[in-house]
TrEMBL record:
PROSITE patterns: THIOL_PROTEASE_CYS, THIOL_PROTEASE_HIS
Domain Cathepsin propeptide inhibitor, first and last residues per copy: 59-118
Domain Peptidase C1A papain C-terminal: 152-368
Keyword terms of this UniProt record: Disulfide bond, Hydrolase, Membrane, Protease, Signal, Thiol protease, Transmembrane, Transmembrane helix
GO BP, one annotated term: proteolysis involved in protein catabolic process
Family matches, as CDD domains: Peptidase_C1A
PANTHER family cross-referenced by the UniProt entry: CYSTEINE PROTEASE FAMILY C1-RELATED
Organism: Zostera marina (Eelgrass)
Designated name of the protein: Cysteine proteinase
Keyword Signal appears in the UniProt entry: yes
């Protein structure tokens, strides 16, 4: 058993050696070193122990796909510990998927991170701000009297209209708030002008000093910034996933807004009426229920948000799934197109007494 373990780690280290660029002389030394270790291992174990277990094979495959894309703060952590975390996650994923849930999990790019590491690296740490400061009754809170307006369509998907651009990738920067706000402005700009423009998140990260760049922010504050300054295109002002860069203020303004409004909170009915008119930015709480490992299907979570919303996304539609009988929201995330359903998640709608799964109705806002 000991020898088998030893061999596992050896092969993982080999992978590293093989992928790193080494000079002739150092590769010779490494080769001799490997030969030495292998001799030691083989001589101390039965032939069977040279076989890789399925989980080892799976981890190797995972490493070749995602290993080079890990956040820099994790690249130097030893593979033994990473493998243990991965193994633990995969055991959980396999068990979860064997049960009858409305969604499945997968060992995606976050599969060798603990939930704590995921939270520390990707989540918005500035979202617990007092929303009543930005969304006030009588000022910019849009209450819709649903008995006075026609009912919204039973389903809508803004992706089919041209108002939603390709899914982007925030990388290892807590800038979800910028992606959510920019995607909302992209949607509104399309609805107003009939032209789709990819706009700049990095401009918000660099220039919006009311928010905190890679440490987080609030979409209403971002909309205030955009109202005052406009936004450049992402071509003119490309995303760097970095904090502390100098703000470029001499670029052409490509899109402008008049301001923003907030949706009456804690009501999925109110949210539905607004999403029928445009994509809407929402803050959600995602530290529960394995959001990070979502694969496909209709996500649900019995934790309904505790006003500790730590991620921002864009609602781009809603519908009803005949297979599971569930109503859902369509959520555009910013973890790249490989995450979830092509970068999107369907999240259970009409749950949690109006608060919504992950507290989705606690802080919705949109540009006008
Ligand atoms: C190796 O040993 C394990 C048990 O330790 C066994 O399940 C497996 O079938 C063996 N594999 C081979 C190729 O003999
Ligand atoms: C996201 O971007 C980072 C940095 O550019 C890259 O390393 C990573 O592979 C990307 N992830 C996805 C899923 O596209
Ligand atoms: C799985 O769930 C669906 C609906 O949620 C139900 O119709 C089906 O009978 C369940 N299957 C099992 C094996 O529990
Ligand atoms: C939030 O802000 C409002 C208005 O600025 C204030 O009245 C309220 O006391 C604040 N609530 C908390 C919990 O700070
Ligand atoms: C909504 O509109 C109906 C019909 O016009 C009216 O009776 C009702 O008082 C309104 N509700 C609110 C909360 O304003």
């Amino acid at each position: 058993m000991e020898a088998k373990k030893h061999n596992t780690y050896l092969s993982l280290y080999c992978l590293i050696f093989m992928t790193s660029k080494v000079t002739m002389s150092s590769s010779t030394i490494i080769f001799m070193f490997i030969l030495f270790i292998m001799t030691t291992v083989v001589s101390s174990s039965s032939p069977n122990t040279t076989q890789e277990s399925p989980i080892e094979k799976r981890y190797k495959k995972w490493l070749s796909r995602y290993g080079n894309h890990r956040p820099s703060n994790m690249r130097n952590m030893n593979l033994k510990s990473r493998f243990e975390i991965y193994k633990h996650n995969v055991q959980f994923i396999d068990k979860f998927n064997s049960e009858n849930h409305s969604f499945t999990l997968i060992d995606n790019q976050f599969a060798d991170m603990t939930n704590e590491e995921f939270k520390g690296t990707y989540l918005n740490h500035e979202m617990t701000g007092n929303r009543t400061q930005y969304c006030e009754e009588g000022r910019n809170m849009n209450y819709i009297n649903t008995s006075q307006v026609p009912p919204p369509p039973v389903s809508i998907d803004w992706r089919n209209t041209g108002a939603v651009g390709p899914v982007k990738n925030q990388s290892t920067c807590g800038s979800c708030w910028a992606f959510s706000a920019v995607a909302a402005v992209e949607g509104l700009t399309y609805i107003k002008t009939g032209q789709f423009l990819s706009l700049s998140e990095q401009q918000l990260v660099d220039c919006d000093t009311t928010n905190s760049g890679c440490n987080g922010g609030l979409e209403p504050k971002a909309f205030e910034f955009i109202k005052k300054n406009g936004l450049s295109t992402s071509n003119d002002y490309p995303y760097m996933a970095l904090d502390g860069l100098k703000c470029k203020s001499d670029l052409k303004v490509a899109a402008a807004i008049d301001g923003y409004e907030c949706v009456e909170p804690n009501s999925e009915a109110q949210l539905l009426y607004v999403v029928a008119t445009r994509p809407v930015s929402v803050s959600i709480e995602i530290e529960f229920c394995f959001f990070q490992l979502y694969d496909r299907g209709i996500y649900s979570c019995s934790k309904c948000g505790s006003h500790n919303n730590n991620h921002a996304v864009l609602i781009v539609g809603y519908g009803h799934d005949l297979l599971t009988g569930r109503d859902y929201w369509i959520i555009k995330n910013s973890y790249g197109q490989a995450w979830g359903e092509g970068g999107y998640m369907r999240m259970t709608r009409n749950a949690c007494d109006g608060i919504g799964v992950c507290g989705i109705t606690q802080m919705p806002s949109y540009p006008i």
